[in-house]
Amino acid sequence: MITYWHNPRCSKSRAGLALLEERGAGVSVRRYLEDAPTEAELRAVLAQLNVAPIEMMRAGEARFKALGLTRDSDPEALIAAMAANPILIERPIGVTEGSAAIGRPPENLLSLL
After folding, report:
1. Where are the domains of the chain?
2. Strands 93-95 and 100-102
3. Is 3.40.30.10 the CATH classification of the domain at 2-112?
4. Nearest-angstrom CA–CA distance, 1 and 12
5. Which end of the chain has fewer surrounding CB within 10 Å, N or C?
6. How many Cα neighbours within 13 Å face the side chain of 78?
7. Which residues of the chain have a pLDDT value below 70?
8. What is the mean pLDDT of the chain?
9. 93 exposed, middle or buried (CB, 10 Å; 0-12, 13-18, 19+)?
10. Full-prediction pTM beyond 0.85?
């Protein structure tokens, strides 16, 4: 089962979901803007992705700049910002029991199958 952090307003997120469904993947959709992940959940996904927090963020979002964040901000501050402002989380993200993938491009999600 893939837990899919989804924003239905995002074309890449819709494309990734369609791709997984076309491949017959079991998908549980989590609208992360409405059901924001906790800091602990973010840390777990970061560990599965094996990336720094900034690599899981939408640094071009106006909220990123409004919060005074930079690419050099403390990783813990970035995690806290994502938990408090889920719009900052890159989308989409697919998460399984043992791995995760950022769906940019959507084909990256195929590694979860």
Report:
1. 2-112
2. antiparallel
3. yes
4. 20
5. N
6. 20
7. none
8. 97
9. buried
10. yes
pLDDT of residue 59: 97
Asked if 57 and 82 touch (Cβ cutoff 8 Å), the reply is yes
Q: Is-cis flag, bond preceding 92, omega within 30?
A: yes
What string of H, E and C letters represents the secondary structure of 32-97?
A: CCCCCCCHHHHHHHHHHHCCCHHHHECCCCHHHHHCCCCCCCCHHHHHHHHHHCHHHECCCEEECC
Q: Considering only CA atoms, which of 45, 26, 27 is closest in space to residue 36?
A: 45
Whether residue 13 lies in the annotated active site: no
Which is the catalytic residue, given 10, 29, 54, 110? 10
